[in-house]
Write a structure and sequence with these properties.
With 304 residues, this protein is of the alpha/beta class. The chain contains eleven helices and 18 strands. The longest helix is centred in the middle third of the chain and has 12 residues.
Length: 304
């Protein structure tokens, strides 16, 4: 199975603490690295996680609150000092270029690569990136500023060749691509060999959904339904629900309700408020609703 990993670099909320870094993750898909959010100090967390800066493909920013994007200039500086020459695409809400372009122009005039801002409409579920094996789309969220999560979807895998059967029917190498794609095989004498006899089912495709920052928002359920892994913010506990509603964040219980209704396989909760020194209470609250829940922490690597 091809590599599909989530590296958590920071899972704290806006108020910095010595316990957690600010929001940032890296998805490693087949050794291409995709960054999700870039809070302050992300380049240090990136290095601590022993990730390869040269393999950073692009960055996705959920929204323009500082704890999710203030690390971008520092990361760009680090990449420049390491000799990056390839342009760096940054998918972000509309105002990101207006905010960061003057800063980058001032400090990094001699940079050997360009930061290319690729704005998207946070109100829409739309395709942002695609290659031959992966799709990344936006997930509209509900927050105080325009905000969106991201869905990473592995494209449908091909069926597996049963070598003994293809040898038995003398299937030529030139036909293997079609067989993997699901086509039947026709022998030289015109006999049709069903594809099911020559192949076994494809490995199921995998999905990862990243949803932060957001209030409880059931409209995301059809988009993330059946995901293998969901990261959902759980800034507050239920007894602070009034504060959650004021700031358009979620409680741990609400995150679990989304996971349960979307029938995801595993939930990671994060974006913890600094007011909770004992985060196991957040885990207990979520686990009452959705048992397969874990707490995020820095340097966590989750294989999908």
């Amino acid at each position: 199975m091809e590599k599909f990993e989530v590296n958590i670099l920071g899972c704290g909320s806006a108020l910095p603490t010595v316990k957690h870094g600010l929001s940032a993750q890296v998805v490693n898909f087949r050794d291409k690295l995709f960054m999700l959010d870039c809070g302050e100090g992300t380049q240090l967390q990136f290095r601590a996680a022993k990730l390869n800066f040269n393999k950073l493909n692009r960055i996705f920013i959920t929204h323009l609150h500082g704890d999710h994007c203030f690390g971008l200039p520092g990361l760009v500086c680090t990449l420049g000092m390491l000799g990056r020459t390839a342009d760096l695409p940054v998918h972000a809400p509309l105002d990101a270029e207006k905010v960061f372009a003057p800063l980058l122009d001032y400090f990094f005039r001699e940079m050997p690569f360009k930061v290319v801002f690729m704005p998207f409409d946070t109100r829409k579920n739309e395709l942002l990136y695609e290659d031959r094996s992966l799709r990344v789309s936006s997930i509209p969220l509900k927050h105080r500023v325009p905000s969106a999560g991201f869905l990473f979807e592995e494209k449908e895998n091909q069926r597996h060749i049963i070598r003994e059967m293809t040898d038995f029917y003398h299937v030529p190498v030139s036909k293997m691509k079609d067989i993997k794609a699901g086509e039947d095989f026709v022998t030289e004498d015109g006999k049709i060999i069903p594809n099911e006899r020559l192949t076994s089912p494809a490995t199921p495709s995998r999905k990862y959904a990243y949803c932060t920052d957001t209030a409880y928002y059931e409209k995301i359920i059809p988009i993330i339904e059946g995901a293998d892994l969901l990261y959902h913010e759980a800034t507050f506990m239920e007894n602070d629900l009034k504060r959650a509603k004021e700031t358009l964040h979620s409680s741990a219980r609400q995150a679990a309700m989304i996971a349960e209704k979307a029938k995801v396989k595993k939930l990671i909760i994060g974006h913890f408020s600094a007011r909770y020194p004992n985060e196991s209470l957040l885990l207990d609250e979520a686990s009452e609703i959705f048992k397969n829940t874990v707490l995020a922490n820095e340097k966590m690597v989750v294989t999908i």
